[in-house]
Amino acid sequence: MQRPPPPAGSPTNRRCMSRPTIPPSADPTTAAAPGPHSLHGAVPISIIFFFLVGFLSIYLLRDLVEYLASAWPAHRRGVEEGTPPNPRCPDGPRGLGPAALAAFPVRRYSSLKGLREGVDPETECAVCISEFDDDDPVRLLTACRHTFHQGCIDQWLASHPTCPVCRCDLREPPVKMATAGQGATAHGGGEEAEQP
Question: Per the database entry, which stretches of residues form a coiled coil (predicted)?
Fold first, then answer.
């Protein structure tokens, strides 16, 4: 059985505390100086750390330079230096102009229902995904024969030169074609209407 330690202020406790429990080293300089292997693990870790920080800094600096270069208008720099502008950054609107847009007929939906016999008419606008009412003004893309609400397709074609359903290129000039009793225009590649 073990004895409890003496009380804190007793002479026995003071005597035990004044004696060293570990014998002193014969040479005091060897106890204070680190051994030859004490830094053995710290040097490689430090080297790896600095290489990682260096590579990360180079990577982030490269991304920052690319971001700043793309934020600056590259096509303006090219024009100022006398080189052609970057083809990936086209100038001006990419959609159809008002003249090209006016070439596509606008009609009431009820008048276009029987235009293509034997083919089910489209019942909803693919842009807004709303069903057509008989008195809705719709624009007929004559190249591919798709119909849309006039406001929906006009907004789409202001920024895109293609049909939103089939991606038919609508920048080609329209060619006049006679359709079944309707004077509509058609682009090359569209379906020809039956002659009466």
Answer: none
Residue 40 has, within 13 A of its CA and on its CB side, a CA count of 5
Using DSSP, state whether 182 is helix, strand or coil.
coil
pLDDT score recorded for residue 130: 87
C-alpha to C-alpha distance for 36 and 51, rounded to whole angstroms: 25
C-beta separation of 173 from 97 below 8 A: no
Reference 153, options 164, 142, 145, 143; nearest CA is 164
Reply yes or no on whether the pLDDT at 119 is more than 60: no
CATH number assigned to the domain with residue range 98-186, chosen from the 4 options 3.40.50.970, 3.20.20.150, 1.20.120.430, 3.30.40.10: 3.30.40.10
Buried b (16+ CB within 10 A) or exposed e, 133-157: eeebebbbbbbbbbbbbbebbbebb
Contact assessment for residue 149 and residue 123, using Cβ atoms and an 8 Å cutoff? no
